[in-house]
């Protein structure tokens, strides 16, 4: 999905949302605001379409009534009654995960392994393999987890039935192998792999394929590529394989062509365990086999084969020599098919899950109860609380009338809206700007593209004018306007580039004020499109939403996608001339949508990859508005004013609603931050309250600080004595109270020098007083107007201020940076290597022995551009990050100044987040690299000797000031 990429179209660390969610929720003991309830659907709409896409179906090995299915964005679902009803318990994981496979331990079925992320389309990213030991009640990360992965998709997990400690995982960066039940993994074979199977009855023989076919004869420890009878890799986009206990030597394979066709390359058959192959037929399965491709063989009849692709589900009764149709009455786009007996099979497709009990002669839809709709957005009636129109990925546009869900428009359903003055007028769209209009309440739709001659984005924005209901706007490469509800269009902009518009807004306070955003920037007109202004003064990045005040045309808000830690939401009060960053306290996750609460005190709701937040001008922080809502991607927010409800469409869990936020009606949850966590004796630290729930009272405890307690909301505290100190904040309001303690939170480093001495001067009455001080002579004497900080008023051994009464001044001595060392590999001449162009989350582990500043590192950049460098702690949380422009330098080192302050700790991890294109040496490093303050202990590569991206690290000890 586009909102999770940056302005350059490049993807980020796949686990960032997972880590940021865990980090954010660790900050707060409770998230009380909101009372979200599910609107739906949990049934399959009538008239076509389906419940939503599923990537796999798995049946319990000893209880056939227990079935698991996996959604690409809606989590893992379980049925205990053979598919009559479904439930999920993955809603409250750190994020609602996509998943692509589930493997059940045959010896202990409470142990299961889940391949996370969408392995077919990449709609959601993997956070690695999750494991449960209690039948799916709880899930935990494993040794193949976000902090150690460099891939974006995983597709298949195998558990060795003869030794269930042995686990194999097929991913787009290779086959990973564990011998300790997923505690640790090693990379057994590099490459891109999408499918994998054991030889029936002999798990020492394993087959794996992606763009090529590999075979292992030692349980996956080593692999050999097989080419005999198979097409060259240049002719392959994807492979899928199947085996059968009816004849363990048989292996079947379906192969898809690469771009631009993505059709069927051929059907292949091996009768000798994958050593050699023949090509008996080439069945047609549609033209998107990079995305949907599946195969299964009857366990008692080696000649009976199912194949699924885009448009066709086929069956062979003669070992693949010929195929006939077998998927009548099922949704197209087939992702998985499995046999459970000689007559029973299950399939998973873009509409849900189906079962046959007669070898495919007929299929029964079991998707009722699966609430997995991937919605891009929705429209609602302005007066009827029960009338909604939503656009679904894979399943068209669907209408809800309070009782029934009806499929009313095909294709991939995108953004839609309902005329606020007439519920009979509805607009729905399909991918890339397929605009449609209904004048009979969604009974029929006709094209509303008219004379528009540009291509829209995958999700093309279009909206109704908030003042004139017969006028609508659509964003393609330019902004188009129709005064006839979509009958004819006029282009009202001539933007200087061909990028597509991703969001539009029209001010309800003045409909001549129109906003349009592209990846390249933000545009605004104040005269209905006659003239457009390119907005400056805002960060680069993908703008995902624009909200306008309904009473003041000068006020607007914009939201950002991506993982910039500080650029989330910006506000203008002067129609875009100046902007204020109001992002503080939002976790570092993409924001997908934003909406303004009419007639409020600048009330704003934002929808993110993890739920909803609220803020207005009276609230210090963004309130997490989560209660009852799954931790899921929110794609659109709308307010239904007659009942004071806010609605949210989600990408994977349907549509939800809640009462509006009411300040002071929720108990508080304590949280805070500080401007520095490392300092020297005499430093003043500014604490900032980030508590939610609108607290009215604050009680701070600062052991070792001055003051030791405080009731201010944001106190300034001086620390004079070296040591490591905790901090506690207790907050209260009329509803309740909450306390947070961070242990070992503040580190004050010792100074090797004595305090400066001062000579006091006295005088009576106003006038100039001469103050002098002497120090060690090694540093610079500094004069301040407040203890531990304040304003620097002078430097040097004397200061002569004019005073009118009793006045206090303070003096300290600033020493130069402490000892500096260079730790780590110094250049790229150790061994083989290359510029790594794609995204990567490889990096280096290191320990910090004493407080230091990481001044700089050397890098070798293949291309010019911004890179984000971050440091994670042992839990995978971001300690500090920065985005730096790097010039193209090739094999010439350039020094990147970081100035990261780091306190003592083990297993820090430094890496790039997102695009890299830096030199990655692949041999020659000898760990550890040690120094007096920092030890570099290794990389997270599976092979020894790797050294990722960063060289010649310069560190300075933090030296105390007195």
Description:
By secondary structure, the chain is mainly β. It is built from one helix and 84 strands. A hairpin with a 2-residue loop joins strand 13 (193-199) and strand 14. The longest helix has 12 residues, at 16-27. The chain starts with 15 loop residues before the first helix and ends in a 5-residue tail after the last strand. Mean pLDDT is 90; it is low at 1-12 and 147-151.
Terminus-to-terminus distance: 53 Å
- What's the main sheet like? 5 strands, mixed
Seen as an oligomer or otherwise, the chain set is single chain
| Neighbour order of strands in the largest sheet | 57-64-63-59-61
Unreliable stretches: 1-12, 147-151
Quickly describe the structure.
By secondary structure, the protein is mostly beta strands.
Protein traits:
five-stranded mixed sheet, mainly beta, disordered N terminus, five-stranded antiparallel sheet, single chain, 962 residues, 1 helix, globular, 1% helix
Summarize the SSE layout with pairings.
Layout: H1 16-27, E1 37-40, E2 56-59, E3 67-71, E4 75-79, E5 99-104, E6 112-116, E7 128-132, E8 140-145, E9 154-159, E10 167-171, E11 174-178, E12 186-189, E13 193-199, E14 202-210, E15 213-216, E16 224-226, E17 238-243, E18 251-256, E19 264-270, E20 278-281, E21 294-297, E22 305-308, E23 313-316, E24 324-325, E25 334-339, E26 345-349, E27 352-356, E28 364-365, E29 375-380, E30 388-392, E31 396-400, E32 405-409, E33 417-418, E34 426-430, E35 434-438, E36 446-447, E37 462-464, E38 472-475, E39 479-482, E40 490-491, E41 503-506, E42 514-518, E43 521-525, E44 533-534, E45 543-548, E46 556-560, E47 569-572, E48 580-581, E49 591-596, E50 604-608, E51 611-615, E52 623-624, E53 634-640, E54 645-650, E55 655-659, E56 672-674, E57 678-679, E58 683-689, E59 697-701, E60 705-706, E61 709-710, E62 716-719, E63 723-732, E64 737-748, E65 757-759, E66 767-768, E67 771-774, E68 780-786, E69 789-795, E70 798-799, E71 802-803, E72 810-814, E73 820-823, E74 833-836, E75 843-848, E76 852-859, E77 865-872, E78 878-886, E79 894-902, ...
Parallel strand pairs: 57-64
Antiparallel strand pairs: 1-55, 2-3, 3-4, 5-6, 6-7, 7-8, 9-10, 10-11, 11-12, 13-14, 14-15, 15-16, 17-18, 18-19, 19-20, 21-22, 22-23, 23-24, 25-26, 26-27, 27-28, 29-30, 30-31, 31-32, 33-34, 34-35, 35-36, 37-38, 38-39, 39-40, 41-42, 42-43, 43-44, 45-46, 46-47, 47-48, 49-50, 50-51, 51-52, 53-54, ...
């Amino acid at each position: 999905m586009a909102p999770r990429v940056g302005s350059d179209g490049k993807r980020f660390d796949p686990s960032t949302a997972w880590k940021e969610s865990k980090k954010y929720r660790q900050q707060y003991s409770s998230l009380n605001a909101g009372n979200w309830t599910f609107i739906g659907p949990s049934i399959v709409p009538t008239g076509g379409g389906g419940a939503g896409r599923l990537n796999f179906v798995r049946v319990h090995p000893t209880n056939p009534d227990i079935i698991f299915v996996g959604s690409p964005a809606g989590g893992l679902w379980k049925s205990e009654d053979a598919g009559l009803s479904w439930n999920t318990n993955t809603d409250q994981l750190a994020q609602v995960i996509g998943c692509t496979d589930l493997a059940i331990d045959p010896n202990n079925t409470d142990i299961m392994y889940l391949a996370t992320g969408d392995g077919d389309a990449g709609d959601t990213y993997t956070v690695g393999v999750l494991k449960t030991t209690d039948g799916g009640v709880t899930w935990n990360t494993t040794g193949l987890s976000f902090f150690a992965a460099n891939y974006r998709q995983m597709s298949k997990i195998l558990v060795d039935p003869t030794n269930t400690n042995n686990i194999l995982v097929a991913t787009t960066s290779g086959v990973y192998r564990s011998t300790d039940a997923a505690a640790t993994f090693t990379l057994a074979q590099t490459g891109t792999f999408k499918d994998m199977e054991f030889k029936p009855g002999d798990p020492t023989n394993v087959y794996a394929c992606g763009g090529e076919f590999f075979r292992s004869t030692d349980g996956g420890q080593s692999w050999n590529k097989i080419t005999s009878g198979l097409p060259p890799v240049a002719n392959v986009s994807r492979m899928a394989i199947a085996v059968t206990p009816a004849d363990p030597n048989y292996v079947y394979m379906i192969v898809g062509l690469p771009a631009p066709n993505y059709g069927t390359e051929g059907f292949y058959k091996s009768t000798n365990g994958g050593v050699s192959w023949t090509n008996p037929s080439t069945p047609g399965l549609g033209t998107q086999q990079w995305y949907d491709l599946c195969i299964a063989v009857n366990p008692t009849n080696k000649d009976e084969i199912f194949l699924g692709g885009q448009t066709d589900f086929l069956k062979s009764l003669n070992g693949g020599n010929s195929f006939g149709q077998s998927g009548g009455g099922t949704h197209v786009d087939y992702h998985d098919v499995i046999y459970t007996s000689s007559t029973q099979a299950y399939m998973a497709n873009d509409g849900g899950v189906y079962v046959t009990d007669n070898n495919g002669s007929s299929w029964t839809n079991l998707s009722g109860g699966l609430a997995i709709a991937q919605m891009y957005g929705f429209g609602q009636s302005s007066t009827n609380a029960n009338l909604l129109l939503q656009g679904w990925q894979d399943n068209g546009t669907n209408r809800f009338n309070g009782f029934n869900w009806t499929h009313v428009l095909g294709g991939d359903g995108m953004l839609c809206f309902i005329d606020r003055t007439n519920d009979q007028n509805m607009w729905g769209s399909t991918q890339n700007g397929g605009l449609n209009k209904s004048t009979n309440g969604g009974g029929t739709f006709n094209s509303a593209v008219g004379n528009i001659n540009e291509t829209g984005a995958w999700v093309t924005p279009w909206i109704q004018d908030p003042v004139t209901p017969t006028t609508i706007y659509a964003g393609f490469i330019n902004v188009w306007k129709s005064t006839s509800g979509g009958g004819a269009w006029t282009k009202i902009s001539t933007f200087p580039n061909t990028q597509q518009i991703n969001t539009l807004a029209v001010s309800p306070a003045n409909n001549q004020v129109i906003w349009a955003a592209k990846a390249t920037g933000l545009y605004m007109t104040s005269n209905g499109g006659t003239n457009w202004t390119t907005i400056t003064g805002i960060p680069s990045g993908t703008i995902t939403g624009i909200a306008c005040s309904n009473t003041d045309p000068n006020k607007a808000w914009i939201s950002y996608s991506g993982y910039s830690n500080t650029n989330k939401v910006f506000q203008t009060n002067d129609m875009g001339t100046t902007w204020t960053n109001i992002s503080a306290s939002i976790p570092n996750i993409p924001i997908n949508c934003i909406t303004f609460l009419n007639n409020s005190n600048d009330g704003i709701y934002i929808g993110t990859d993890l739920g909803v937040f609220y803020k207005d001008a009276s609230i210090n922080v963004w309130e997490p508005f989560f209660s009852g809502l799954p931790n899921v991607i929110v794609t659109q927010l709308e307010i239904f004013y007659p009942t004071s409800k806010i609605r949210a469409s989600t990408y994977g869990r349907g549509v939800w609603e809640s009462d509006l936020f009411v300040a002071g009606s929720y108990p508080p949850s304590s949280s805070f931050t500080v401007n520095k966590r490392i300092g020297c004796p005499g430093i003043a630290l500014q604490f900032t309250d980030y508590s939610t729930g609108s607290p009215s009272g604050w009680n701070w405890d600062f052991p070792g600080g001055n003051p030791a307690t405080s009731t201010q909301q944001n106190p300034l505290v001086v620390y004079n004595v070296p040591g490591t100190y905790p901090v506690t904040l207790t907050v209260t309001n009329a509803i309740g109270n909450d306390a947070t303690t961070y242990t070992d939170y503040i580190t004050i480093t010792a100074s090797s020098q004595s305090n400066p001495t001062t000579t006091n001067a006295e005088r009576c009455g106003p006038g100039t007083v001469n103050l002098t001080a002497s120090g060690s002579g090694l540093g610079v004497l500094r004069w301040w107007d407040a203890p531990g900080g304040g304003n620097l008023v002078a430097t040097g051994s004397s200061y002569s201020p004019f005073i009118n009464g009793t006045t206090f001044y303070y003096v300290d001595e600033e020493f130069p940076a402490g000892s500096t060392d260079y730790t780590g590999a110094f250049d790229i001449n150790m061994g083989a290597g290359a510029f790594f162009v794609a995204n990567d989350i490889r990096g280096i582990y290191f320990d910090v022995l004493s407080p230091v500043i990481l001044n700089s590192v050397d890098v070798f950049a293949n291309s010019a551009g911004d890179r984000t460098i971050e440091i994670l702690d042992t839990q995978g949380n971001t300690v500090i990050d920065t985005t730096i422009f790097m010039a193209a330098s090739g094999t010439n080192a350039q020094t990147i100044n970081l100035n990261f302050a780091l306190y003592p700790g083990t297993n820090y991890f430094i890496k790039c987040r997102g695009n890299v294109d830096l030199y990655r040496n692949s041999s020659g490093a000898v760990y550890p690299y040690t120094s007096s303050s920092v030890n570099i202990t290794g990389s997270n590569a599976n092979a020894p000797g790797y050294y990722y991206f960063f060289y010649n690290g310069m560190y300075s000890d933090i030296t105390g000031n007195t």
